Amino acid sequence: MTTETTLAGLNDAAPDDAAAILLPCCESEQWVDAVLAGRPYADLTELTAAAGEAFDALPDAEVDRAVRAHPRIGERAAGADAHSRWSRQEQGGVRATEADELVTLNLAYEERFGRVFLIHAQGRSGQEIIGHLRRRLDHDDATEEAEVREQMRSLALSRIGKAVLGPSAGDGEEDDR
Predict the structure, then answer these.
(1) CA separation for the pair 103, 85 (Å, rounded)
(2) Percent of the chain with pLDDT over 90
(3) Rounded Cα–Cα distance for residues 129 and 94 (Å)
(4) Distance between CA atoms of 166 and 118, rounded to whole angstroms?
(5) Would you say 166 and 13 are in contact if contact means Cβ atoms under 8 Å apart?
(6) What is the pLDDT of residues 77-94, one digit of tens each?
(7) Distances, alpha carbon 105 to alpha carbons 62, 72, 118, 167, in Å
(8) Counting runs of H as helices and runs of E as strands, what totals does the chain give?
């Protein structure tokens, strides 16, 4: 089974196949299990609402686990799997000329917060991402933890649409961190 399917395909898939569809959306088995427990879903709205509720119930350790699955912003994920393809698509607004500045800011962020910088990059320019990175370096730990959680949630929910409706669903743009 492919990782991109229809809503009916997700509803009808064997548990392992359905998990393989959802895991690229949010690399948390706890989240995947919670979303799968609500099957069948009548429509994308119902699936997305359930996925949001499941994400909101995740402990911080699970959110951190999902974040660790992402490449640094500005680095192109290798591979043909859905997670890698979506990541490349979502980071499509980052230009090669912005790479050095992103490397420097990524390292400062990682030193400050102990994790990779995560932003739902879909539709954002490289300069916009750089601005968010600079702003977030000034956050206190609690503020940044809340922002990371919201960015990961936003990314996961946008990927739900891609998983069940195809790559053009969810954000309306092609080719994250």
Answers:
(1) 21
(2) 63
(3) 8
(4) 23
(5) no
(6) 556 565 555 555 555 455
(7) 25, 11, 12, 29
(8) 9, 0
Taking the C-alpha atoms of residue 79 and residue 57, their distance in angstroms, rounded to an integer, is: 30
Q: Please name the residue that has the structure tokens 């951190």.
A: 64
Q: What domains can you pick out in the chain, each with its CATH number?
A: 7-165 (1.10.3330.10)
Q: Which two tokens stand for residue 144?
A: 């940044």
Residues 169, 161: Cα–Cα separation, whole Å: 5
* Each residue's pLDDT tens digit, 89-125: 555 455 566 778 888 999 999 999 999 999 998 888 8
Looking at this protein, which amino acid is placed at residue 1?
M
Q: Which two tokens stand for residue 138?
A: 């000034």
Place of tokens 């968010």: 132
Q: Please give the helix or strand (H or E) that residue 129 lies within, else none.
A: helix 126-137
CA atoms of 121 and 129, how far apart (whole Å): 7
> Tokens in use for 139?
């956050």
* Alpha carbons 39 and 46: distance in angstroms, whole number: 10
Distance CA 169, CA 6 (A): 12
